[in-house]
Amino acid sequence: MAQFGIDPAPFTLTGTDIPVSPMAWGMWRFAGQGVEKAQHLVETALDNGITLFDTADIYGFGEEGFGKAEELLGQVLGLNPSLRENMVLASKGGITPPVPYDSSRDYLMRALDASLQRLQVDHIDLYQIHRPDILTHPQELAMTLDSMVASGRVRAVGVSNFTMAQIAALKEYLNAPLVTTQPEFSPLHLHPIEDGQLDQAMQHRIAVLAWSPLGGGRLIKPETEREKSVAEALQAIADEQSVSLAAAAMGWLMAHPARVIPIIGSQNPKRIADATKALTMQWTRDQWYDVLVASRGEPLP
């Protein structure tokens, strides 16, 4: 039976000269670690071929504080400037704690300035709007993002958690290419497949960054019958190809023709390295669809 693999080569974000790795490393739980450990994590990701680093200004809010993940990464880069040369740095803004969203021009410009200061850099490679602000017209948001790019402080722009309609509305006004969208996507969360998000991304050549690719850890420690069924389907292919279940879950996402980029959320160096073994996987259509059927809980029509 024919197999298909995962392209391990970096690819360039649409309309830019920015090459990104096929997997990303996320910093949602990065804050609160010492600088030495933080540097080791960054180096581990780079050593394993991960060049796309995804953070956000709100990461750290709660236990450590708003901006603390960016601040820690900034300390690492301040001590080791050469690390920045090999990194595609992505951050997000637009959430004001504890809950409200603000994508107004005034707020986002201040948020960008603050992120640059915390990160100790003069530009961010990819700046993404973290959550859609219903009270900001897409034309205003587009003008803001275009200004960021024109200023040289941002190289490319994207969105996170936007609906298809919100993406379409923003693109209508945006001059700079919209290069990324970041939905929740895992073998347990199929919305991007079922609601057309991945089709829209392929249509417009928008890269898809998948957050929570392990279903918030539920694939590793399944409890419900559905979670157990999906984990068993993934474990079968994982055992066959001598990779972990976590790697198999990420490999399943990357096997989609949209070239999904899973965001590794682990802050454990061994698990970061382990996850990248997903790039070695080969899939048959039967294996891939077995996971889909397990997640849907019903046979294909």
From TrEMBL:
PROSITE patterns: ALDOKETO_REDUCTASE_2. It comes from the Bacteria. GO terms for cellular component: cytosol. Residues 23-288 form the NADP-dependent oxidoreductase domain. GO terms for molecular function: oxidoreductase activity. CDD domains: AKR_BsYcsN_EcYdhF-like (cd19092). This is Aldo/keto reductase. It comes from Alterisphingorhabdus coralli.
